[in-house]
Amino acid sequence: MTLAEPRAAVSVGPFRTVPNSITAVRTVVAVAIGVAALVAGSVPLIAVAYGVYWLGDMLDGWAARRLGQETRAGAVLDIVSDRACTAVLCVGLVALVPGIAVVAVVFLLSFMVLDTMLSLAFLCWPIVSPNYFHEVDRRVWAWNWSPPAKAVNTAGVVVAVVLGQYPLALGIALAVVAVKLWSAAVVVGLLARDGRA
């Protein structure tokens, strides 16, 4: 099933929206707190930075839906901002807690490479964001962007690390890599199926 002509124009939407402003603010604040935590050598401050990042990420998504301001430009800004926050906070956490280095490498490679490519794949179809990927393929959406998948994919690793369960964190990170690789293979097939490859 083809959702639209392969070369059909799709609006990216306005860039100046309330959700995009929230995304920008939460990114600047989380990164600034993360850098301050690294300079101060404070793990609790890194936790605060993660809290700002996650709360801001939930708030910008909620505002986008509530205000009817979901846009493709906003989705891309959110994806890029998530990577900025994650890179700074994860590297800061490794500097402060070197024992998590192996977990961090697996997690960062998965999130920064595999998950970024998967998250941006929505741009190949006329949908607003990865949150609507169920319109393309429900299985890929369920394993990557459904609320439970989002929670496990990122928070699962971080919570296991915070609890000192490094083997569990590594297990979760490796499971996420497997899901991302499977999802990437499915998306490549979908691109070919829909004439978008």
UniProtKB/TrEMBL annotation:
<dbReference type="InterPro" id="IPR048254">
    <property type="entry name" value="CDP_ALCOHOL_P_TRANSF_CS"/>
</dbReference>
<feature type="transmembrane region" description="Helical">
    <location>
        <begin position="168"/>
        <end position="192"/>
    </location>
</feature>
<dbReference type="InterPro" id="IPR043130">
    <property type="entry name" value="CDP-OH_PTrfase_TM_dom"/>
</dbReference>
<feature type="transmembrane region" description="Helical">
    <location>
        <begin position="28"/>
        <end position="56"/>
    </location>
</feature>
<keyword id="KW-0472">Membrane</keyword>
<comment type="similarity">
    <text>Belongs to the CDP-alcohol phosphatidyltransferase class-I family.</text>
</comment>
<keyword id="KW-0812">Transmembrane</keyword>
<dbReference type="InterPro" id="IPR000462">
    <property type="entry name" value="CDP-OH_P_trans"/>
</dbReference>
<feature type="transmembrane region" description="Helical">
    <location>
        <begin position="87"/>
        <end position="113"/>
    </location>
</feature>
<protein>
    <recommendedName>
        <fullName>CDP-diacylglycerol--glycerol-3-phosphate 3-phosphatidyltransferase</fullName>
    </recommendedName>
</protein>
<keyword id="KW-0808">Transferase</keyword>
<dbReference type="Pfam" id="PF01066">
    <property type="entry name" value="CDP-OH_P_transf"/>
</dbReference>
<keyword id="KW-1133">Transmembrane helix</keyword>
